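Here's what a typical entry looks like (diguanylate cyclase):
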Amino acid sequence: MSETHIEIGDIHWLMDILQNIDVGLVVLDRDYNIHVWNGFMESHSAISPQKAKGQNLFKLFEEIPEAWFRQKSEPVFQLKTRTFTIWEQRPYLFRFKNSRPITGRTAFMFQNTSIIPLESLDRQVNHICVIIYDVTDIAVSRADVKNANKTLTEIQSKDPLTGLWNRAGWEPQLIQQFNECQAAGNECSLVTFDLDNFRAYNGHFGHQQGDQVLSNIGKLLEKAVGLRLSARLGGEVFGLLLPGQNGEQATATAEKLRRAVLLLNSGNDTPNIPKITASFGVASLAKDTHSAHEWLQSADKALYHAKESGRNQTTLYQHRPS
Ligand SMILES: Nc1nc2c(ncn2[C@@H]2O[C@H](COP(=O)(O)OP(=O)(O)OP(=O)(O)O)[C@@H](O)[C@H]2O)c(=O)[nH]1
């Protein structure tokens, strides 16, 4: 076999590899006209090499932002260095349909690209090669992990029965309100409330109906102050923040809620049967309230007082005169 014969064989193999390799290969000249368009590009774009060759890249693919792509390619021509684009910055260079069977949930193919200089015999770079990698699997699984983390955070911070924050989810809101209102000198009040004799209610009506009551309380709170500011702090204990309300106004809001809780008994007028009622503690934010924790403790003390005074009532925490 002569040397020339082997070289021709090599080129033949190289052409085969170029055609069949599972990455996109595109050679462009300085005017961004296409010189090479391999099998990967043909099968994903449905444009044959015959049709692609000689065409201007930006005319053939109008979705490619010209200024951005030129900025990525010019250093390759001028400095003979490689440059890259990654899917996190721009999901794709060519808008190809996603053809992956497992990660088929995304409509398009995520791509990373490398742009490499092609030197001619006189060492000039008049052509560049754009290599396109399909990274859809990586991008989709990264998005799956992100979504799973989001769901996990939600599970950890939300109460599934009422849809309200749980204590862990609510604490950051409480701390934020505390910090913001203290810094700005704005009024804000905190209310905690606890269903009365709920053990007896559960004992009489069953746990499932007890759950329904808790869920209805959640709806009342969502309607009254919204999901962001209210929480189920524990079994039958709830909390809500009332920005802009001083102690007196917050007491009026708590009383309104207390009456709304009473309305959950409609249809249950029989004497000696447990009724749904709740006791409320209100604490306005005072200048000498040192922490969100102390604020919550003040509301809890007021709630304890309401319980001790006979339940189904509201107590406003009395700050020491300054
Ligand atoms: N149905 C239901 N009941 C719950 C849930 N979480 C806590 N409870 C019930 O709430 C009741 C709380 O009982 P206690 O702490 O004795 O309080 P109480 O009976 O409400 O009495 P006071 O608070 O003193 O008025 C218990 O019977 C718990 O089982 C829940 O998710 N669903």
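The pocket of guanosine-5'-triphosphate is lined by residues 194-199, 202, 207, 210-211, 214, 235-236, 307, 311 (CB under 6 Å).

More examples are in the samples folder.
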